[in-house]
């Protein structure tokens, strides 16, 4: 299906569950697609939630931005447009880039924007080396791969926590072009908006992240990969300082790609959090 983003941009989406169930919006990380949430969406639906997994602009089957705008403001505007189409405020589950977008949308938006926030290995303090490794991986392969096996080998080298699963899942994230090579299914211009610095900035500068976090009043959960090089234990504690009611769940044997590394553990943690915290409503006064 398609949902309407900012200025009429059509965003590809996958849904699971019934539309009158409590909505949960799933936002993937940079360079990923909605398919990263396939198993989690099914689990959420089985638990009684209406799961909506979006392809961000320029990713997956969503169109590339005509003007090349992949700024944080553009992504938040897309999310706000999708939010306006829902019958009730959703819970937001955002991984990496999707988490930053969710954090800004809630922290800078109206009080009823969302009912809960789940940040997946993303926080206000980010480790510069980890961000650099992510961006280096994305930039290293903009020229595509000679084969699916070559792509699988590159992913395995980047993410040793992930069990080898062959090339079946990769086919949803790669497209073969006329030159015979396989390319990631996202707009390389996205990287023009991804910066790096000693503060681990990526798309959103640290001061803006912190200001948004201070205004988060909904139940919040940070799910962190125990072996993550993007969010450190100190980064998790810093988030809890800014969002005092935020809860922390560490996933063992998982890195930055938590939902893919240990999906059962991750999905269980999210569902348990939503079941126990959503009835509480707003936590700030």
Automatic annotation (TrEMBL):
Keyword terms: Hydrolase
Native source species: Sinimarinibacterium thermocellulolyticum
Domain of life: Bacteria
Domain AB hydrolase-1 intervals: 22-258
Protein name as it appears in the record: Alpha/beta fold hydrolase
Signal peptide location: none
Molecular function terms, GO-annotated: hydrolase activity
């Amino acid at each position: 299906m398609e949902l309407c983003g900012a200025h009429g941009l059509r965003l590809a989406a996958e849904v699971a569950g019934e539309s009158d169930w409590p909505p949960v919006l799933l936002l993937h990380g940079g360079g990923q697609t909605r398919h990263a949430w396939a198993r989690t969406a099914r689990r959420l639906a089985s638990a009684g939630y209406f799961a909506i997994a979006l392809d961000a602009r320029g990713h997956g089957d969503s169109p590339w931005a005509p003007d090349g705008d992949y700024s944080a403001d553009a992504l938040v505007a897309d999310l706000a447009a999708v939010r306006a189409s829902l019958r009730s405020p959703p819970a937001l589950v955002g991984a990496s880039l999707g988490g930053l977008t969710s954090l800004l949308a809630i922290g800078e938006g109206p009080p009823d924007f969302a009912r809960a926030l789940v940040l997946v290995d993303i926080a206000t303090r980010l480790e510069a080396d980890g961000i650099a490794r992510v961006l280096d991986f994305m930039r290293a392969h903009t020229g595509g791969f000679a084969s699916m096996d070559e792509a699988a080998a590159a992913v395995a080298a980047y993410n040793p926590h992930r069990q080898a699963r062959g090339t079946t899942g990769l086919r949803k994230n790669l497209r073969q072009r006329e030159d015979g090579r396989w390319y990631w299914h996202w707009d390389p211009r996205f990287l023009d908006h991804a910066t790096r610095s000693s503060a681990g900035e990526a798309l959103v500068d640290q001061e803006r992240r912190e200001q948004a976090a201070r205004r988060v009043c909904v139940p919040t959960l940070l799910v962190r990969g125990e072996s993550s090089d993007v969010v450190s234990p100190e980064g998790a504690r810093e988030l809890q300082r800014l969002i005092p009611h935020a809860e922390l769940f560490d996933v063992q044997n998982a890195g930055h790609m938590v939902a893919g590394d240990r999906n059962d553990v991750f999905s269980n943690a999210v569902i348990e959090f939503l079941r126990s915290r959503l009835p509480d409503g707003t936590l700030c006064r």
